[in-house]
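Hi V.,

You were right to ask for the full record rather than a summary. Here it is.
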Amino acid sequence: MKISAPLCLAACLLAAGCAALPAFNTAPNPDQVRAQLAGDEAAVRTLRASARVDATGGAESGSAHQVIAIALPDRARLETLTPIGTTALMIVIRGDELRVHSPVRKEFGIGPATAETLGRLVRVPMPPAFLLRLLAGLPPFPVRPEDPRTRIAVEGAAVRLDAVEGIWWERLWTGAGDPAIVRGELGQASGVLLRFGYDDRRAVGETVFPFGIWAEEAATGTRLTLTYERVRLNPPVDDSLFELPLPSDGSRVIRLDGGPASEGLAPASRP
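Predicted structure:
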């Protein structure tokens, strides 16, 4: 059984001072870009934040406020809030499992964390690990300069990077005159599947972080735009935050991949 359209829209995943980025000293410098990417990778391990998510294109458009917690590489908790601040929907990604609970609709979904199951919720399908990295202000997968398949080239006033991981490839572009990535593409042999970008970079402690992030499905033009309002980088995140047991409110159980609804579920303990 499929989750209803309102639930899908409410699940759309996914801003706050300005800080200048270091500019290229003269011509675009690939070494500066490599250093920027390495610094970005080292700067984010966990994230807690609040944000507004806007969905445009496709059959439906809308916006929602989210509370986001991420522990890279594979754990996330996303809560969609109602206009009065209560929880309308919870999504938990924990390794290879995806769980969803709507207290408002009394629906509880469970299934594998894949591009397909996640795409039914957020309408821009991508592997969950890639989504978590985008939310953390990083490219979908790390660029490894030592990989012989990695290409770094100067294009006018910017630098372009091409990287490969498994069946996936990504292209990244810096802005004109700075070493930070501002946009990119993700795809497979069939072509571009996803376009994405980062803007509104601001200082969060000693890190310059993008408070604006967008992702767009190439085939449909459906776009999610995330505008962070508050961001904390690398706070302690208890592992229990990424647990979502079956609630005791009589919720209808939905298997997101069509398997037995009761498989792998345990009810929440009562006080």
